[in-house]
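Worked Example 4.2. Consider the chain below.
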Amino acid sequence: MTVGQERSYGAMALVSMLVLFLEAVLALVVGVVHFETLPVPNPWSGFTLGPLTLPFLLVAGAVVGAAVSWLLVLPTVWLSDVLGRRLSGRAAWWWVPLVAAAGLAPVGGYAALGASPLTALGWWLVGTAALTVPALLCRVGRRGMFGSVALWGTLVVLSAATVGAAAPHTGLVERYRPPVLTRDALVGTWTDGGGGTVTFAADGAVSVSGGTTHSLDTDFAVIVGKCAGAGTWTFEAARDAWAQKVHTAVEDCAWDPWYVGGTRGRVVLYQYVGDPDSPDVHALTKAP
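Applying the procedure from the previous section yields the following structure tokens:
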């Protein structure tokens, strides 16, 4: 089966998969740059992409790219051609974004149920653009299209990566830095949000009530426990804001050092817990 006279659905699917892959890499670049601006801890804190996971991600990406191409991109190309010929007499390119937007409208409506209308609108527009680009390129019925897309798409991704890498150093993007604290700023009661409190006294004493501990069993599953008691605490100041640490010595609470995160208006003390490859975060915020 062919579309037009030259390009087959199989060739179109390959172009679509390539474009979707380049879009995913471009989104990753943008995501990494955006991540540099986020206060820690955040949902991606401590996440690392190990080399052993890359082959699995590539295979999964190929499967997802093929599914999206055959289930969304190619039907969008076909339907836009059909509607263009029947309603306007020719298969104009501008039917593609209209069909893509209409096809993703239910997804945007569903997203609006769990997010603000503005957020849902943003994701709908992003999805429409992500679907429109491969569909438009699939309509181009000339030989060597796959190679052209690979060449120019790679240049776009490399350019974006170069700009993204330079952005924090040029002031285009402000990289996140933890607030620099003094010892006095830590004095007071901190809460973990689950009923546990840690109180740092000015004389170096610390008391814990309803504290939470985390450890790993032999299968690397997290074991959650409770602790309470009294002990001492010290603050390790540093010129490098990332190196600031709060050490606690409480017999029943075997805690690693707490790192400083959050913002100046909402300071967070946190530590990573769980599997080192995908750690969760145990955080404290200062009680009002």
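Helices lie at 9-35, 54-87, 95-114, 117-139, 145-170, 183-186. The chain is about 45% helix and 25% strand. Compare this with Example 4.1 before moving on.
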